[in-house]
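Two quick folds needed for the group meeting slides. Do the first one here.
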Amino acid sequence: MLGRSSPLPTPAYLLFLTFAALAKGQGLEPPPDYEGKIIASIQFAPESQPLSRAGLARRLRLQVGQPLRLADVRATIKQLYRSGEYSNVEIDASPSDRGMDLVIRTTEQYFVGAVEVRGKETIPPNYGQIANASRLELGYPFEDQDLLNAANSIRGLLERNGLYLATIEPKVERDPEHQEIAFTFLVNPGPRARFAKPNVVGDTRIPVDEVAKAAKYKSIIFWKKATQANTQSGIENVRKKYAKIDRLTAAVSLDHTDYLAKDNRVRPTIKADGGPKVTIETSGAKISNSKLRNYVPVFDEGSVNRDLLVTGVTNLRDYFQTRGYFDVRVDFKTTQLDPDHDEIRYVIALGQRYTVVRVEVQGNHYFVTKDILERMFIQPKGLVILRHGRYSDGFARRDENSITDLYQANGFRDASVKISTRPYYKGKRGDMVVVVTIDEGPQYRVSGITLEGVQSMDKSRLMAHLASAPGQPFSEANVGMDRTFILNQYHDGAYPDANFDWRTTPGPGPHEIALHYFITEGEPRFVREVVVSGLHHTRRRILQRSMLLKPGDPLSWTEMGMMQRRLYNLGVFDTVNMAIQNPDGDTENKDVLFQLTEGHRYDLNLGFGAEVARFGGSQTSLNNPAGTTGIAPRVDLDVTRNDMFGLGHSLNFKGRYSTLDRLASLTYSVPHYRDVEGRNITVTGTYENIRDVLTFTARRVEGSTQLSKQVSKGTTALFRYTWRDIQVDQSTLKINPLLIPLTSQPARLGIVAASLIRDHRDDPVNAHRGLYDSVDVEMVDHYFGGNRNFSRILGRNSYYKRIAGDTILAFNTEFGWIHPFGIPSNINPSDYVPLPERFFGGGSTSNRGFPDNQAGPRDPLTGFPLGGNAIFFHTTEIRFPLIGANIGGVVFHDMGNVFSNLGDISFRVHQNDLNDFNYMVHAAGFGIRYRTPVGPFRVDLAYSINPPTFHGLQGTYQQLLFNNATPTIQSVSHFQFFFSIGQAF
C-alpha cells in the first residue's frame, strides 16, 4: 500500500500507484501486462458507501468478467468524483488465479453544517457577524484548510473592531451519518482597545493637527473605542472637514493601523491629499447652496471629473424645468484662479417660464387616454402642488419609454412614442401643452405555441396555464411569465436543473408569430433527509408542522422557502438558513439543511414620551370640564421572556406610568395551538389605574383568556372570557353628590365575547385602498361570575379608495350599543352600567370636534362627561400629497356623538337645551401628515360647527360637596387640535 516501505515494488503496488496517480490527474501508464486482463472481483473499502448500490453501479465502468482497461478506470474515478460524495478515490489492483482483484478505496467528503459562536458577546461584532466572517457556507464541501481560514477571518474581524486580545477556540463535531461537520467557535473577546492619536501622511494642504483632530477619535475626555464603525466614521469626518473648506478633490483613506500592545491602543494612519480648493458657483439664476450640493454630484463623490460635472448639468436642467423653465440651457466652465484654487461655474440661461396646462395624447387607438396619462410622470399644473406642472427632457424620455413598453407588452412591437411641446395654449404664450404622439403600428398576435422536451410533466396542463395563447397579442413579457411558470413547475417537481429556451418564427398570416418553447428537464432530484441543527432550548416537536418536506419527496425550492417562512413565523429564531447539501454533485437524493439560530430569550424595551391634549382641570378642581391643554409625561416598560419551556411560548410584562394611566399586565402566549397555523391562545392578568376621562379615576383588575383563529387571509376570529373587577374612586368623581353612592359601587363583570376582524388594506399603517371591518360582541351576565347584566356590540367599517394619482378617499363608520337587562326595579337603566364600562368618545380617532373622551351625556350639575350606552361616528377624509414625497395634506369632516341609549340616536344638528346631548355634532378641518418610518406624524386642526353648551360649576371639589360652587354656562370650544402618530383610521 501507499506509504508502506518495501525493498522492491510489487506489480500490485505499481498498479496501485498508477491508479492513485490517475485520480490525481498525473497521467501515468499502468504496467502493460495488466491491460486487458479479466476483472475477477471488485470491492469497496470501506464497505459502507454514501452512494446506494444502484448509484454505485450506475457510475462503475469496471465490470466483473470484463477486461481491465485504462479508459474504464479513468471513467469510474471521474464518475465517482462527479457525485460530490468523495474527497479521495483510489483503486488498488492485485493479480490472482482468476484474473485481477480490484479494491476501490474511498474517503467520504464532509460538508459544512451548523456554524455557531459561543462566549461573551461584545457588540460589535455580534454572533451573526462572526459566523458570517468564517465564510463557511452551509452545505458546501469542507477542506481542512477551511478551518484555519475561518479562524483567521474571524480574528481579522475582531481586530478591526479593536478586540486584539480576543481568543478563538474552534471546536469541530463530525456527523458521519450525514457527512456533516458542525463548527462552534468559542470567542473570548477580551477588553476592547481604544484609539491613540492618529498619524497623518500625505500632502494635506492644511496643518496635520487639524486633520487628526477632524477625525474625532477622541471625545471630550476619553479616546473612543476602536471599532470598525468608529474608524470609518473618522475617515468620513476628515472628508467632511475638507469639503467644508471647498477642497472637494481631497482624497482621504485609512492607510493602515498599528496596534500598541503595551497600552492596548490602536493608532490609525490616515492618508490625506488635500488637493486644490474647488468652488462651485452659478450665474444667470439663483439656486440655494443646499440644492446645488444636492444636484451636483461632485459634493457626494468627493472628486471632480467631467462625467460628474455633466451629470450636474443634467440635474440642474431637470430642476429648473420642473419649475417651469422648460427652455433652460445649462453649461459649465472651469477656471484656475491660482495654483491652489479652481472655480467651476454653471452658466444658466433660464429663458421664458412656462406652465404645463394640458397634456394631449394623439394616435392612441388601442388604449384610452386615461390609461396612458396614469403612466406618465409629466403632469399638468395643480391647485396646490405643481403650480407650473411637471416637465423636463428627462421626464419626457422616461414617459416615452414607459408608454412604449406598455404597447410592446401588448403586441405592438413596432410602436413608437414621441413627446413634444407647444409653447402656447388658446393663443396665450407661456401656457404650454405637452403633446404625446403615438404611432402604434401593427399588433402582432400569437399564431400558435409548441412545447418541446416535456417528458415528465403533464404537457396539456402546462399549455393550459401559459400566459401566451393563440390569438392573443404577442409579448416578450408574457414569454417571461411562461418561462417563470414552467421552470417553477419543474423546480417544484424535482427537476432543479431544468432549463428553458424559446424562439419565434413567422406565423401563417400577416403580423402573426409562432412561439416555440424548448425544455431541457435534466435529472430528477429527491430529498434524502431533512437535517435541522441549532436547537439548544427549543424542542424539536414544535418544528413538525413546519416540516413540509419528507424523505423521498421531490426536491423543491418552493417548499423549502415555505418551510423557512414557517420557521420564522414561530417567533423563536433570529435566523433560519437553508441549503442543499452537496449542491454541485450529481447525486439523485440530497439532504436538505436548515441551520437555526435561536433568538435572545429576554427582550427589554424602555420608552419615554408625553401626550399633549386637553386634559381638563386638576384632581380637585371643577373648572374646565371641557378640558384645557396639558401635557402628560409617560414611561413604558416591556419585558418578554421568549421560548418558554422550549415550546415557543412567551411571557410578557408591560408596565406604564403616567399622570393619566398606571398599568401593569402579565401575558402568557401560546402561538399555533395544537400545531394549527393562526390559532393562538393568550392568558392575561392586568391591573390599571386610569383617569383619561376627566370625570373619575378608575381601578381595574382583570384576568382574561383568549383564543384567536385566522379563518382566512385577512380574516381573524377571536373568542375570549374575561373576569373584571372595577372600582371608581368616589373622591375623584366630579358629578352630582347624590349620584356618587350609585356610580362608585364596585362592579364585577364576567364577560364572554367574540370578535371578527377582516382586514384587506394594502397598508395597515397608511392605507391607500381596501377595506377594514370589525365587529365585537360581548355578553356580561352574573352566570359568568359577575354582578352586572348587559350586552355590548361594537362595529367598525373603514373604506379606502384611490381617486386619482395619490389622492385617497377614506371613510370610517363606528357604531356601538350597550343593552342592560335584569335591572333591579329601583335603578334607572341609564345609571346601571358602571362608568368605566360605558362608551366614551370624541377626539383624534372618532370626532375631532371634541377633545378626547368629551362627547356625549354630561352631568347636569358639574358638566363633566358621563359616557353613554350608544355611539355613532362617521368620518370622511380626502388625503392628498402636499409638499414633496413625504408631506401630505388631509381635509376631513367628522360627525357623530355618544348617546344615552340606542333610541336616543338622532341626526339632528341642533341642541334643544343645556341638558340635551343626544344630537349629531359636526366638525370640519385640515391636517398635515409627515411620513416617518413608524407611520405618518399627524397634526389635525378642527372646527366644531355645533359644539354642545352645558351647565357647569366653578370651584373646588369640597365646594361641590357643600353646595358652595358657582354655577356657570360652559361649552366645548369650536377649535380643537391634535398631535399623534398614525392616520385617524
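Then this one, please, same format:
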Amino acid sequence: MSTFLQSQGLMNQTHFSIIEIDLPVVEGVCTVSGEPGFGTPLSCDQTSNATRTYKFTQVDAPFNIPESGVLRLIKSISETPAKLNSGKGLSSRGTASISFVDQFNKDPNPDAPAVTQEVTEQGSFFAKLAARNELTNKEIRIKNYRVESDGTIDLEFGAQTRHYIIEAVNPKKKDEWQITCKDELARINIGDSVWPLPLEGSLRADVDDSVLTWPVDANVTYLIGDTVRSGDEFLKVSAVANIGTGSATITTAARGVAIIYTSFLSSTEKDSHDSGDEVYVCEVSDDERIDDLLERILIDIGIDASMIPKAEWAAEIDEWHPTTRINTLWIESVSTSEVLEKILSNFMIDMWFDPVARLVKISAISAWQESTSTLSEDDQINFESISRKREENLRSTRALIIYRKDFLASPDSVENFRSASLFKRTELESPDLFGEPKTKRFEFSSIISKDGADLLVNRWVNRYINPFSYSWITPERKLNFNTGDVVDINSRSEVGFDGLRSKVSRAQITSIKPNYRAEGRDYTVTATSYEPLFSTGSEIIISGNVTDINLYIQYAGAPSEPVELTFIFDGTVGGSSSGVIPAIKAGAFPVGSKIIFIMANGADLQAKGGNGGAGADGKNGLPAPTTTPSNGQGGGIVYDAMGIDTDIYFSGATPSVNFPNADGYIRAPSGGDGGFDWQQVAAEGFIGGSGGNAGDGRAIGTGGDVGDNDGGTSTNGENGAEDGSRSGWGNDGANNNAFGGSKGKGVVDNGATVTFFGETPARYVNGGGDH
C-alpha cells in the first residue's frame, strides 16, 4: 500500500473517485409525534447523536470496491477550482458538480425505526436522502484514487482529498440527481456577507454639536476606546454607562477633533444629530498588518480559523510587505468581496481557496518572485497542448493611484484626496516598442500610505509590461506544482530572433482544473506570464524631476534578497520637499546589496535649503520686549545610503555599456540664516526683528518671518538665489542674533562604504556630509 503521492509516478494508471458526504443521524430512539421516525433530525423529534458518511463511486469503476456501503451511482464529476484574477486580488470561487444516477429499492437510513421493507422499495434513494436531510452547506469530499500496480487499493491513505461544501441538491431528468458545490471562500460572494458586521446602533434622543454624553440604544455593547460614526461625524468613546439597558449612554471625547490612536486615522467635523440617527461602531485598523486584517475579516464572516495558515501568511507579508501597515476606519458595512478586493488589489496580493490543502492561500506579486520549478513541453506539459495569448487588457506602461483621504466620511471624489503616486516606463512608449502610453488607474484609496502607493504602481507596471496567458494539459503523474507557484515554462512556442527555442519564460500558475475523463484524470492548467523586470546587475533609468525618492520601493520594487543594481540618473533633476527628508534614500535593501549610481547627461541632484529663522517680536510700550529670534534650519540631505554600499560615478568612464561616460553633480544645500533681535525706534517703541535669509538648494528655503511689528517697520528674510549667488551650496547659515542652520549634506553613509569616481572634484559639494 502507498499514499497518493507515492504512487503518482506509475506509468500506467487506473483512476477512480469516491464522493463522501457526512450527515447527522439519529440512532436508537427516533419518533415523530409518537410514531416511528426515519433516522435524521428532520424526520425525528430527537436531535442527532451520530454522523453517517455516505459514499459513492462511478458506475463504471474498474474493479470491485473492497468496502461495503460504497454505491456505484456517480455518472460524472465536473470541477472548476478557484482561478487567480490578475490585478483584482480575490480569485474566482471554486465550484464542482456531481451527477448521480438514482437507485431504487434502497434506503439511505435502513436501520431507522420507520424504514420497513415497503419503505425501502418505494421512492428512490436520492429522493428520500434529500427529503430527510438539509444538505445545503454540508461538507462534501471528492477523493481521487489510483489502482496500484499490483491491483491493490488503499482506501484509507491512497486518496487525494478535495474539499467543498454543498450548495444545492436537485433532481434532473428521469432518475438523475445533481449536487452542486462551492468552496469555502464562497461565503464572501456578493450578497452573501458584509463587513464590518453591522450592529444596529442608534440615538434615543436629539443631541446638538456640543453634547458629550449621548443616549444610545440598548442593543449594542459599546466599549471604551470604540470609534463611532453618526452621519459624517466621528467620535471616540471615552466612557460608557448602563450599556444594554434603556438608559444606556456613551461619553465621547472632545467633538470635532481628529481620530488618533497610534496613528492619525481621520479628521472630522462636529454636527447635530436627531433621535433615531444611526450610531455605527467602526472597525479600527491602527498600524495593522495586512495578514492580521485579512484574518479577522475572514473569521468574522464565518471562515474557520483552521483554514487560515497564519504562519504562511505572515511569512509572505514579512518577505514582500515587511513595513506595510494599514491605518484607517472602516465606516460602513459593504460586501465582503468589495472590502477584500480593495485590500488585496491595493497591495497586489492574490487570495484563493486550495481545495486539497483546505486552506485559504495568499501570494504577493512582485517582479522579484523567483520560480520554484521548470515545466517542459513533452514532460509536465503534454506535447502540443500549450497555447499562448497576449493579455492586452493587463498591459501597462504607467500606473496611477490617488490616495490619502483625511476626512473619511467625505465622498470618494478626487477633491477629497490629497496625494497621488505615478510610475511610468517611458522607454516602452517609444515608436520602436508599443508607441503609446497605456495607464492603469487604480480606484481612489483611503487605506494606502505613500510607500504602499509607490510600491503598488511600481509592481503593477513591472508585473504587466508585456503579459501573456498560457493554457496546457498536465498528466496526473507529472503534476508536481500548485496554484500560485511561479514556474519557468520551456515550450516549443517560445523562440528567439533566430527561430530557435529561446530561454524559458516565467509565469504564475493561476488555476489547476482536474478533468474526470473516461480514460482517467488529467489537468487543465492556466498561467499568466511573470517576466522579471530586473536581475542582479540590471540598470534602472531615472529621468526628469524627482523628489523624495526611495530607490528600494519606487524603482527597485522591494526585492527580498540581496541584489546589485545600477541606477542611471539620466539628466535627472533631484530635490527634496523638506530639510528632514532626503532627496534620495537607498531604502531597506537587504543586507549585502550594492548600489551603483551613474550620473549622466548633466544630472543634478540637490536637496532643500534650510529655512531662515524668525525675527524676535517687537512691542509698543515699556518695558522692552523679552522675545528672542529663532535659529535658522539646517539644509537637507541629497543621498542617504542607509548602510547600503554605493559607487557613484560623476565623470569619466563607467561600467555601463549603455552609459559609458558619466556627467553629473551632487550638491549639498545650505542652512538658513538665524533671525534678528527686535530694535528700539523710540522711547517706548520696539519693532520686530528681521527674519534670516534662506539657504540655497533645489527647493530654496523660506526666509524667516519678521517679528510682530508693533512700533515701526522691519523686513522679512529673503529666499536664497537659484544660482547660489547668495549663500552657494554646502554652507552653514549665517549666525545673526540667532544661530544659522547647519549646512546640508551631500552624501550620508550611515554605515555604508560609499566610493566616488570622477575627474572633477567640483562636481560634488559635500556640505556636512561624510565625504
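Slide caption for protein two: DSSP finds seven helices and 47 strands in the chain.
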